[in-house]
């Protein structure tokens, strides 16, 4: 399921780059929410149908105290979550944000099950991709 997206180019900064990023889309977006005291995880597939790579550099949401780009990694048999500064979405490619890999980490979540949370994805060229992500419990969309 693809979600409605709005693309905003920062006026007068990098307007020439906006058409390439207009070819970004998101599918299967959702947030895994447990409790307000437990970080929530954001998952999706980010598609890039443009001729150039897109560099995701951050994310924000009014429903998160902080929203960060994270990646789960196995370090000597111990799974760890580490903050990443950027994620490359290759031209004509996609990046999956999923449990055990890249994900959005929402610290101090302020949300409820079954609501939709606004999220802004920020890119290196100054553009932003706005979307809404449905909130599910531990089982995710399939458990609803």
Automatic annotation (TrEMBL):
Residue ranges that the Swiss-Prot or TrEMBL entry lists as coiled coil: none
SUPFAM superfamilies to which the protein is assigned, alphabetical: DR1885-like metal-binding protein
Signal sequence residues: 1-22
Assigned keywords, A-Z: Signal
UniProt-listed InterPro entries: LpqE-like (IPR007410), Lxx211020-like (IPR058248), PCuAC_sf (IPR036182)
Name under which the protein is recorded: Copper chaperone PCu(A)C
Originating species: Acidocella aminolytica 101 = DSM 11237
